[in-house]
């Protein structure tokens, strides 16, 4: 399957993810809220309580793609981004294809395979990672310049985006599912 990825590459090494652990954020908060190094945070709610039928709801990755359009305007490196995919998703090719891959971003409680690619490649996320069906959102996503960080854990129904205040304000104005969020302090 590795050879079939077209827009994402396995990172040469996982050290590009070291900054997450070096942020000083305790691991349980890190996997849930992301690194506590930004001046502002937004929460993107995947669930929509106003919808009577979940079939009408956009997929998580659809909502992430919408946020990525905004986030792409708040980085100087939109073509050079990192994407962590949790290696524990059942049914994911990661379980089989990358079982022997030792270069992982490791946070206590979670291991991730690190990919690189352009932010625009999110439009192909389900084709690349979903085996023809829905694919979960990246667990972490950030541009090389680290102007923002997107975090989405398997155990939550929302994602957290840390960024400059202007980026958070723009996210909130662009999506009714985004709101200001104050994660726990370190």
Describe the structure.
With 186 residues, this protein is α+β, with helices and mostly antiparallel strands. It has one domain. The protein is built from six helices and nine strands, in the order E-H-H-E-H-E-H-E-E-H-E-E-E-H-E. It has helices at 18-22, 27-33, 60-71, 93-97, 125-129, 165-174, and strands spanning 9-10, 40-45, 81-86, 105-107, 110-117, 140-143, 149-152, 158-163, 178-180. Strands 1, 2, 3, 4, 5, 6, 7, 8 and 9 form a nine-stranded antiparallel beta sheet that branches. Strand 7 (149-152) and strand 8 form a beta hairpin.
The best one-word shape is globular
Which parts are unreliable, with pLDDT below 50 for 5 consecutive residues or more?
none
CA-based gyration radius: 15 Å
Structural class: alpha+beta
Number of strands: 9
Helix content: 10-25%
Listing every helix as H and every strand as E from the N terminus to the C terminus, the arrangement reads EHHEHEHEEHEEEHE
What's the number of helices?
6
Gap from first CA to last CA: 39 Å
For the sheet with most strands, the description reads: 9 strands, antiparallel
The residue-averaged pLDDT reads 86
Give the percentage of residues in beta strands. Answer: 15-25%
Concise summary:
This protein has 186 residues and is of the alpha+beta class.
Q: Which short descriptors sum up this protein?
A:
alpha+beta, 9 strands, nine-stranded antiparallel sheet, 186 residues, 6 helices, 23% strand, globular
Describe the secondary structure blueprint for this structure.
Elements: E1 9-10, H1 18-22, H2 27-33, E2 40-45, H3 60-71, E3 81-86, H4 93-97, E4 105-107, E5 110-117, H5 125-129, E6 140-143, E7 149-152, E8 158-163, H6 165-174, E9 178-180
Antiparallel strand pairs: 1-5, 2-8, 2-9, 3-5, 3-6, 4-5, 6-7, 7-8
């Amino acid at each position: 399957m590795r050879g079939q990825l077209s827009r994402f590459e396995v990172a040469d090494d996982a050290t590009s993810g070291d900054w997450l652990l070096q942020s000083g954020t305790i691991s349980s908060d890190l996997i849930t809220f992301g690194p506590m190094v930004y001046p502002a945070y937004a929460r993107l709610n995947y669930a929509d309580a106003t919808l009577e039928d979940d079939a009408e709801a956009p997929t998580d990755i659809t909502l992430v793609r919408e946020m990525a359009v905004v986030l792409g305007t708040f980085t100087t490196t939109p073509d050079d981004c990192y994407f962590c995919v949790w290696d524990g998703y059942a049914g994911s090719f990661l379980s089989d294809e990358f079982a022997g891959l030792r270069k992982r971003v490791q946070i206590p409680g979670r291991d991730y395979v690190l990919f690189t690619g352009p932010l625009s490649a999110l439009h192909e996320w389900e084709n690349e990672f979903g085996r023809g069906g829905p694919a979960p959102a990246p667990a972490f996503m950030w541009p090389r310049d680290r102007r923002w960080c997107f975090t989405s854990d398997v155990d939550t129904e929302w994602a957290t985006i840390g960024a400059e205040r202007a980026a958070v304000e723009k996210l909130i104005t662009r999506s009714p599912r985004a709101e200001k969020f104050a994660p726990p302090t370190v």
